[in-house]
User: Fold these one by one.
Assistant:
Number 1:
Amino acid sequence: MKKKILFVINNLKGGGAERVLVNILNNFPFEEADVDLLLFWKDGLFLNEITDEVKIKNIFNTIPKNDLLFLLERIILRMILLFPALIYFFKLKTEYDLEVSFLEGLPAVFIAKSPVKQSKKFAWIHTNVVHNATRNFRMEDAAYNRMDKIIFVSDEIKEFFMKKHPRIPQSLLTTLYNPVDTNQVIQQSSEPCPVRFDDTNFNIVSMGRLSFSKGFDRLINVADKLVNGKGLNDLKFYILGAGELETELQNLIRDKRLSSHVILLGFTRNPFPYLVQAKLFFLSSRFEGFPMALLESKILAIPSVSASCSGVSEAIKDAFDGFIVSNESDLKFIDEAANMIYSLYNGDELNKIKKNLADEDKYNCNIYKIYQCLLSV
């Protein structure tokens, strides 16, 4: 008999966890399970990419552009969490074998309070819960203590989780790296790119949500040191992503007189035609869970410079297929990253790294390990 599985996430707006979920759902062995996806808000650029095999259900429609209305809906959602059986009765109407919270916070609380007593309950953790602390620690701690399994995208964020939630038995914790489809990355990198880089420039690509955790303000300060401080006028940083700090970052770029050197390109479903044109990929994050973009850069043989945050040392080997710089403080990161990029700009280390990447076995996480975990309940 086919299993019945429910995934829960806030929405499908552009982000790493959302992209991973789409990949897992679209390749799911549907001959073995019926899959539902519950969205708190039926919104996001990935919404149209979900296979028709998945039944999408939602509590609210698109995320309101009005901040007050959005706040009101969040308050209503928190009230719903007091009586989640209403959503199961009116929206879901299914007795599930497995319920999966695919994001930290409210999805985990929702699953933990499920009225389906016989179902197994899994939580997926994509972030460093110490650095990305929430205001609802007690509620989330209680939720995680009700889970049958907690899945982490890297060993490092599992270690941080254990420090934050020491009461949870370690036997419930497991690491499953995010799946990357090597062939798909290579195939998508050959698609037409809306922006053609000038290959006489030293082009650097970064990607991610325009949020504090991704550290793009630090990237701009690195660019300032290199362009205005060291005179590297052919240096170009291209940032792929959207988010709440866009206006603030644009203002910082203007204030530093870097409008010709740091370019915000917005969110794109397919970043690989941009990435494949770069001489370097740059990860400026303050916090990460498991940096998928480093793996995707490796697949395309693009060297990387990365802050030393969670999961990075599991994705690249320092000075072999990329470079890792200190993340001890913003100032130290900016200094070390600027010095590293300046050294790569003037030396031949990039060619050595590219050769290592070309010779290295391509990362190809077996997505079926994930399905084996989910279907073993």
Number 2:
Amino acid sequence: MNKILLLGDLVPQAKQKISDLGYEFDILPNAQSFEQLDPQEFSAYEGIIARNIEPVDPRFITKLPNLKIIARNGAGTDNVPIELATERNVWVSNTPGANAQAVAEHALSLAFYLLKDFGSNRMSKKNDLATAVGAELRGKTVGIVGWGFIGKRFAELMSVLGANVIFYNRSKRESSFAKQVNLNELFSVSDIISLHIPVTPDTKYMITDDLIKNTKKQPILINTSRGELVKNAVLLKGLQQGLLSSVGLDIYDNDEASLEKLLSLPNVIVTNHSAALTAESLAAMALGAINNVDAVIKNGKPLNPINTLNIN
């Protein structure tokens, strides 16, 4: 019987789906748990489902001789050694769009928290009076960096609520309700800026001090994508210089000192990489990953491939 290795547990209906398809499966805590794998089982695994974003240990690729696919349980694949996988004729896949609604709603929630200044107006005792004045979303310009599934869904939500939506994307995209602009213009005219772009060599730390200096409206900046798009220290400097009014993060870089400073500020809210953690999203991502594994085992190619293999 074909066997699948889960790097991180999946929701019950997903595990039932694996069994219904006729596969056995084992579960490891995460993608860094290779040492816990029984060497006698190395040859049994044909597919891996990687749930979380920690880097996938390369030994899963080099030591499992019959491995055919690493299926990401989500959209991002920057934690998978894709070049090594391709060299070993191992497919890499993702589940585009499966978490779009969840992440878009989370970004919207962060934006509203900061726009309405809930942090300052949170009641600590009965009869506390409001001390801060918030703002309305209607009529604001919302700039979206990245026009993928999540960015577009966030744009739709913002547009329905009365915002003027503009977006930046590295390639040309069409939209019936949003205007594509360059990155400098987006930072110059936006009241709210939300990052929805993957990390690549071209986009790593793309949000720089110089880019933030283009802001003219003290925008709110939201990042629910990847921490390596903007350094904590850059955000901190933007806040200290009054170039940004507030920051909402679901992800951040690894500089703990600057993160601690951000966490201490009243105009910053940080959630713990929970944007995609809804019951609906977890099920959709897991089922999508399972379908990719099943497609490779049965038909030789995943439904949502990230890499290209030279297989005769």
Number 3:
Amino acid sequence: MQQTVVTALRVLDEVAKHQPAGVSDLAARMDMSKSTMQRTLRALEAAGWIRPAGGRNDGWVLTAKPIDLSRYVAADTGLRRHTRSAMAALRDETGESVHLAVREGTEVVVVEVEESSSPVRIYWPAGTRSACHASANGKAILSRLPPDEVDDLLTDDLPGFTPLTITARAALLDELSLVRERGFAVAEGELRDDIASVASPILGKAGAPLGSISVFLPRHRLADGDVDRLGRATRIAATTITESLRA
């Protein structure tokens, strides 16, 4: 029974990474028979985790259930409860979408979104994952981790997503020093060419990063002077949340 559950979770993870994911491709990736893969996919469908992308031969995609579940992430820290008003205020001040993210390993996961009212915005729903080194949220959190923990997380050659992604370990460490100094992180075209974001870390009572809050916008809308303006705004919002958590 335990192995069956582990297998189903591994399949769910592969579907998430490669959707729309076909049976044959998934079976080959996981070294499983097609019949076993098909049974596992049917079980995940029955449980509401995945659905056919179109017709039955078009592969499988996630349903909204993982996104709904992500809303419970970090509930034990009270993070979501303490961030709602600050996120809404930051969205109203900047006119841009605001994200709350937490770290899971070498990735950050968006767990709450306050959408911009602008008709031109980038859809980035709760549950979306990004590499820490290529996102403002990730760099904000990494900047406040102990050095030995950062060393364990970073490889010498980090994966690149665009020509602007920081892929050298030494260069990223220099970037994290700058983030610590000014209190906010910036990512312009590092994860995707069309995305810009500015983020600040949210700290717990002991000073460890619990998550980060970010302003997230189309890159073409980031004008000269906006980085400092948005950086100050996110830093103030993060400080407000941190003080609320420590009260």
